[in-house]
Design a protein that fits this description.
about 45% helix; five-stranded mixed beta sheet; 5 strands; alpha/beta
Length: about 140
């Protein structure tokens, strides 16, 4: 499967968050073409500001593998990770991160700038399905206003 196909699955998770009135971010973790974790934001449901899709997907992946590191995994997430999630991803030693929409307001780049907050071996790809992921986010906040 391609990055776009996996991002479509992460987008489906984001749609679940949207439908549950959560900020629409979805994530999946893939190892050797097998999805080992899926998650979407559950901040409101769990009353937990750390219940971001990336954090929940990482926890599920750790439990699935019985490991605290994910060097062979790829995280697909619909929005650029925030600084909190970037820290968790750093410690996961994840092999690759693929994200959809850029987030100039809350994404890691706002604070980290040109500094890479991820593990030195982590590969990063941004802008996969950017338009679709961005449109879902804009639709959510337009509905809120």
């Amino acid at each position: 499967m391609t990055d776009e196909k996996y991002m479509q699955l992460a987008y489906q998770e984001a749609q679940k968050a949207f439908d549950a009135d959560e900020v629409p971010v979805g994530a999946i973790v893939v190892i050797q073409h097998k999805i080992i974790a899926r998650a979407h934001n559950q901040v409101e449901l769990l009353n937990d500001s750390t219940a971001h899709a990336e954090i929940l997907a990482l926890t599920s992946a750790y439990n699935s593998l019985g490991s605290k590191y994910l060097p062979d995994a790829t995280l697909y997430v619909t929005t650029e990770p925030c600084l909190m999630c970037s820290g968790a991803l750093y410690w996961s030693k994840i092999g690759r991160i693929v994200f959809g929409a850029y987030d100039d307001k809350n994404g890691y780049r706002k604070v980290a700038g040109k500094n890479n907050p991820f593990h030195p071996k982590t590969l990063l790809t941004g802008g996969v399905m950017e338009e679709e992921c961005s449109a879902l986010m804009k639709s959510f906040f337009k509905k809120k206003r």
